[in-house]
């Protein structure tokens, strides 16, 4: 793969670049596949890990190795197996398909969105040997007419048509009620099928030390702590969005892959004109619908846009400038970060459900999850601007 592509994505690394924990995971995973591929019950292998812990990197490395064995002319126990990697995320799917062109053992057809694969396997009444699911927390947990999914849970349907299912799962990256997962929601699946779990907890994306990662973790639980200092990670809070954007442009000129991103707090209607994010004196367009095969972060013109959780989730940037919109506020009485779901503009994320009980805490969690996704994009730096004046002043005071 090109150095640009490697730098721009979720660091799909070769075997030598995998950490000891990642290499152990890859070996454990392939051993599990060999053990369960010919068993009567579907085997489930669950990989847990926070944003930036290298889940997609090791998943892609293991899938490439599996396909090399499947397509090898030398007889082996995984030769001629039928395997897929699915992800319910358009921008990540583009990266996987591009990587297929750089790997002789991969084909673009190996990578699918879940609904088309489910529908095809159902129609032909066939079984896949192994299905890898990246970002499994984005799988639908209810029917969705827009996405042509008529079942009730995409994981259930994929298990029906697979001998082994490998899924990457992080409940802190759930971004919509229609794909709402809690860790406990996996329990019924694990109770029914033979399974193993593996936890990745080492931060690979962010060069920041443990204090930086902990600060973000605390923030996304509503807690504020002193701003960490780390010579290897540039962490700045801004009183206005324009100088933050100017610095992002400078960083992009210096090292590339530096972008503005924002919480979904600014109006946007697909294919209806240009919509803007406002951050103090800065007014800049939201990202446009991307009809190209190039992921948003790889296109040079997107330096003049603001990315969303849907264009940046799962990707690496070198520097990320994050605009915290009107839904993210501050409670001086408790000195905590608070969120206001009624100000969140992504109404598709809050599409009502009558099977989840009280939706208020779930909506708040989705907003905090989106902040976690955005704040953990940058390898070398995080820049923040808060639209809410009280939160902005409190952040500057830190």
From TrEMBL:
Pfam family, one: SLFN-g3_helicase
InterPro entries: P-loop_NTPase, SLFN_3-like_DNA/RNA_helicase
Signal peptide from the UniProt entry: none
All copies of domain Schlafen group 3-like DNA/RNA helicase, residue ranges: 44-388
Top-level taxon of origin: Bacteria
Name of this chain's protein: DUF2075 domain-containing protein
Natural source organism: Lactiplantibacillus daoliensis
């Amino acid at each position: 793969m090109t150095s640009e592509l490697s730098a721009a994505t979720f660091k799909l690394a070769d075997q030598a670049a995998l950490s000891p924990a990642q290499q152990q995971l890859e070996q454990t995973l392939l051993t599990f596949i060999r053990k369960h591929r010919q068993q009567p019950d579907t085997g489930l292998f669950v990989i847990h890990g926070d944003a930036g812990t290298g889940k997609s990197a090791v998943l892609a490395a293991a899938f490439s190795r599996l396909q090399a064995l499947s397509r090898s002319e030398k007889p082996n126990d995984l030769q001629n197996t039928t395997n897929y990697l699915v992800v319910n995320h358009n921008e990540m799917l583009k990266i996987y398909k591009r990587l297929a062109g750089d790997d002789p053992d991969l084909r673009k057809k190996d990578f699918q969105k879940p609904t088309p694969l489910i529908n095809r396997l159902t129609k032909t009444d066939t079984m896949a040997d192994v299905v890898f699911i990246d970002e499994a927390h984005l799988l639908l947990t209810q029917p969705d007419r827009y996405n042509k999914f008529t079942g009730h849970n995409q994981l259930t349907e994929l298990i029906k048509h697979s001998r082994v299912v490998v899924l990457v799962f992080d409940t802190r990256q759930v971004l919509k009620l229609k794909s709402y997962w809690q860790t406990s929601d996996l329990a019924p699946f694990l109770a029914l099928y033979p399974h193993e779990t593996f936890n990745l907890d080492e931060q690979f994306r962010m060069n920041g030390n443990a204090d930086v990662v902990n600060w973000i973790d605390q923030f996304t639980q509503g807690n504020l702590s002193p701003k960490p200092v780390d010579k290897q990670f540039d962490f700045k809070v801004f009183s206005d969005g324009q100088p933050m954007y100017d610095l992002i442009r400078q960083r992009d000129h210096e090292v590339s892959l530096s972008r503005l991103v924002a919480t979904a707090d600014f109006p946007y209607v697909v294919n209806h004109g240009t919509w803007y994010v406002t951050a103090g004196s800065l007014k800049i367009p939201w990202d446009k619908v991307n009809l190209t095969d190039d992921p948003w972060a790889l296109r040079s013109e997107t330096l003049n846009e603001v990315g969303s959780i849907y264009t940046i989730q799962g990707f690496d940037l070198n520097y990320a400038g994050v605009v915290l919109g009107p839904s993210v506020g501050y409670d001086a009485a408790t000195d905590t970060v608070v969120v206001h779901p009624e100000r969140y503009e992504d109404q598709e994320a809050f599409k009502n459900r009558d099977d989840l009980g009280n939706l208020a805490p779930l909506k708040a969690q989705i907003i905090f999850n989106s902040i976690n996704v955005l704040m953990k994009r940058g390898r070398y730096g995080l820049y923040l601007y808060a639209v809410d004046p009280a939160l902005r002043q409190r952040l500057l005071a830190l």
